[in-house]
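Cross-posted from the bioinformatics board.
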Amino acid sequence: MEYEVIIGLEVHAELSTKTKIYCGCTNEYGSDPNTHCCPVCTGMPGALPVLNEKVVEYAVRAGLAMDCDITRESKQDRKNYFYPDTPRAYQISQFDLPLCVGGKVDVNVEGENKTIGITRIHIEDDAGKLVHDAYTGGTLVDLNRAGVPLIEIVSEPDMRSAADAVAYVEKLKGILEYIGVSDCKMQEGSLRADVNLSLRPVGQKEFGTRTETKNLNSFRSIARSIEFEIERQKAVLEAGGVVYQETRRWDDEKGEGFSMRTKENANDYRYFPEPDLLPINLSEEYIENIKKSLPELPESRKARYMSELNLPEYDAGIIISSKALSDFFEEAGKVCGNYKAVSNWIMSDIIRASREYEFEYDNMPYTAEQFGHLIQLIDSGKISGSIAKTVFEEMIKTGNEPEKIVEEKGLAQVSDEGAIKEVVDRVVAANPQSIIDYKAGKDRALGFLVGQCMKEMKGKGNPQILNKLILEILNK
Amino acid sequence: MEIRREDIEHIADLSMLNLSEEEIETYTKNMQEIVEFANQINELDTENTLVSAFASDAYNVFRKDEVRESLSRDLLLKNAPSSNGEAYALPSME
């Protein structure tokens, strides 16, 4: 039987506020265990939470950037569950009045445009981290992450494949980075997704029973876990079995998912309005001010790159996929005035070098301004395109200004006709056969002579002048 | 509303408590009394009362996003029944 795949995602993003959601402990990643803790975030009796105003602002920013309606009168709710990562024995989340509802984002999957609906975005606190203690075989609890602010973005069941889901998460990541509310570092767990997935026979209206695979923190594991779950459910249904509603985990090393809990009553969270926190009432003015402060979003940048700077859609799409890369493009382009050249370098050398040397776009060894200067050196004829590659490698290694590298290494292009003529005469005299070949119609001979001259000049000869002078001799 | 022993078993399960037969019986009775006590509120006439989750009229009580000093780890772990000096130590949760 043919099945249709139905996927909905819950994406958790840690907000990049300075402090936690309900206390003044720092929201910094990667410190010693249990050093960012206080009575509030460790759930000491009598400690009272106070909501961080930035958390509300960031959630509203995200909501507006994803076309949501902002809830004017909202509140927080208590979600009860008993587990050592949550010392209060409840998470503070939002139940029936989330801050943002009813949004959407547009994605492009393999050339096809799709709209993915967003059901809601709510605020909540993250849990602590449980670490397996290899020494004792026990479990260690680190509460630095307890109380880190999260937004949970819940999608409509609008996705039909792993590719759809990956495109959607990439899109969310881009938006959250652009509006500066989350650093979205997936390897640090600041962006993670839960995948709800079910199958139904093609043509059937009702959804099948869905499973939820939790805590996927890379695009690869999102895609692979979806492929795995589709095949698993298909096999169950085709064997005449029943898919159980259950929570599942994905083991990325083994490449397989497994069931975590099937107990029907395990999800009885007994939500009720959080009595320690007062309602959130947002004015039109507050929402309007946030709307006005939103920066240009990736889609709009992409359109501008295509219409104003004449970039191909593919190139524009790659550049806007990272805010840091897009910012780099704009700044370097502004410095040198040659956006097309910057884009060409990004698509080839910059992307390659970032992979080869393993640096992130927000932490490149050269600045956008320095890179703009490199393009200026090419455009002004001071260095050739091939020498520029050498200078670029040197910029990566030293972080020096390109002008300085050119000067110190003596890489400036020679455009002095007299000096070039000297080399050309010498090379042509040493290769008489090339002249005969050229006259016999072998154009390759020209390329050979240019190459030989360039070699003599260590790549620094001005190629246009070189070409011109050789042709003058050959056509004599 | 009648509290059944299954309700107590369910709540114990959610709280990860192992209750004895005797305890289940006691708590079923206790819980019945608590619910009956709370049910007194239903006698009130709320026809003309607005639905509200809060007793206070206050709203938007926020905190500035400014870092304050955290507790020292030694102090924090002082109350831990068991720790390795850096983290709370538990039996295996794997």
